[in-house]
Amino acid sequence: MGDKLKKLRLLALGLGVAAVSWGGAYAYMIVNTKDALNYTEIIENIEESVYDGDTILDVPVLLYRFEDAEPFAPADIWPGIQKRTDGIYALSDIRLRGIDAPEHRVSTSLSEEERNRIKARAAAAEAFLEDLIKLSIVPGLITIRNPAPDLYSGRVLADVIVYHVDYIPGSGAEGGEVNVADALVKAGLAVPYDGGEKTFDWGAETLVFD
Questions:
Q1: Phi and psi at residue 131, in whole multiples of 5°?
Q2: Residues ≥6 apart with Cβ < 8 Å to 67
Q3: 179 vs 13: CA distance, rounded Å
Q4: Is the Cβ–Cβ distance between 82 and 70 less than 8 Å?
Q5: Which residues contact 162 (CB under 8 A, 6 or more apart)?
Q6: Mind giving me the DSSP string for the chain?
Q7: Is the dihedral of CA 70, 74, 164, 170 positive or negative?
Q8: pLDDT tens figures, 17-32
Q9: Cα(100)–Cα(198) distance, rounded to whole angstroms?
């Protein structure tokens, strides 16, 4: 744990993040950036939070940043709304920007073979995303960048970044700052997606990537 915290402190110099200890627990807040659309979070229950390869559930999303840190303990002020020392947050599902991964829920109009292939690929993408977040320099540490409303109410589009010291098998990433959407695409577990009509066939016997 000591080595991980040393690495986090070094990482913090580049991120503008301060780690504050409250009885052994660590809270993170932005201290050196004016960009309210770039901040860190800790995903506590990773397996429960990762819904599939491109969706993370119940992530605190920064709605409003205080100009100066407020001297009070963080508190829930409404269901799903948190007041922290650096701003106001709302719990929201995050969809990873720029990609599409296979779904767990599959149309019954497909053949059994196609459904089974899609479900297996969805499970692989979900497990890969879980591992990316678990293996961050501090387990669960992510940076959220440029959150914006999604087409679906109550969901947010965002870039999600993790930080790895070592190579991530299958991701094409050598370590350091890793965009999880890019890593999923490089691993063949997601495809680029611009929000339009979905045309990629995750049920195909053999996947063909452009």
A1: -65, -40
A2: none
A3: 19
A4: no
A5: 132, 133, 135, 136, 141, 142, 143, 178, 180
A6: -HHHHHHHHHHHHHHTEEEEEETTEEEEEE-S---TTEEEEE-SSHHHHEEETTEEEEEEEEEEE-SS--SS--EEEETTEEE-SSEEEEEEEEEETTEE---SS--TTS-HHHHHHHHHHHHHHHHHHHHHHHTSSSTTEEEEEEEEE-SSTTEEEEEEEEEESS-BTTTTB-SEEEEHHHHHHHTTS-EE--SS-----TTSSS----
A7: negative
A8: 433 332 333 333 333 3
A9: 8
Per-residue pLDDT at 168: 60
Query: What is the rounded CA–CA span in Å between residue 151 and residue 143?
Result: 22
Backbone phi, psi, residue 112, to 5°: -60, -40
In this prediction the pTM is 0.78
The type of residue at 163 is Y
For residue 83, the one-letter residue type is: K
**pLDDT tens, position by position, 82-135:** 999 888 999 999 999 999 999 999 999 999 999 999 999 999 999 999 999 999
Torsion of CA 147, 152, 153, 157, to 10 degrees: -10
The first and second tokens of residue 160, run together, are 């999600």
